[in-house]
Amino acid sequence: MDPRKSIFDAVRAVKGDISPGDVLILDEALDRVDVPRATSAPRRVGTKGIALMHKWEGCAKRRPDGRFEAYPDPGSKDGRPWTIGWGSTGPDIGRGTIWTKAECDARFERDLVRYANEVSGFLADAPTTQDQFDALVAFHYNTGAIGKSTLGKLHKAGNYAGAAAEFGKWIYNDGKPLEGLKKRRADEAELYRSAS
Q: Does one domain contain both 4 and 82?
């Protein structure tokens, strides 16, 4: 039994639906007061998935002083979302945000746990290899769309060939296909199809 379930149920009763970000905040708070987690270990992204995300996110916009500055999304009309480090975005990131490499790495680690938990929650008990999981987290890290995508739904249904074909449809930003997204999705699909 999950010792945190009653706490989450109580929060939902007061607040209504809670977002994945709220779940992460609650989990971190419960960790600090030593409320145990469920006995089944959460899935973690493997080295192939991390390498894939590092390849495509880069740790860009290094300043002469060695720190990193936020930059606008190069493919969107309005520059949103602002990004820093290993593809980190959010309300705390915008023009003028500057981080050290250690801050970039720490945020990536936190984001990675959050996105892995979101993908795990979506997949539930659907059979998934480590490489498939890594590819799905990499996709979700970039799109935030695992739960609403046909790709995710096909994977959960066990249609792995159909799911793999869906990666190539996620290549648009503001209605335009981007060469970088085509290559990224090809890499994700290749990892998804691999054997481990």
A: no
- 63 and 106 within one domain: yes
Q: Return the ∠ at Cα 42 (arms to 185 and 190), rounded to 5°.
A: 20
Cis peptide, bond prior to residue 81, ω within 30 of zero: yes
**Residue bearing tokens 């009653």:** 6
What is the number of domains present in the chain? 2
As to burial, measured by CB atoms within 10 angstroms (0-12 exposed, 13-18 middle, 19+ buried), residue 74 is exposed
36 alpha carbon, distance to own chain's centre:
24
Q: What is the pTM of this model?
A: 0.76
**pLDDT truncated to tens, each residue of the chain (196 aa)?**
566 777 877 888 888 777 656 776 776 777 677 776 665 557 889 999 999 999 998 888 899 999 999 999 877 777 788 999 999 999 999 999 999 999 999 999 999 999 999 999 999 888 899 999 999 999 999 999 999 999 999 999 999 999 999 999 999 988 889 999 999 999 999 999 986 5
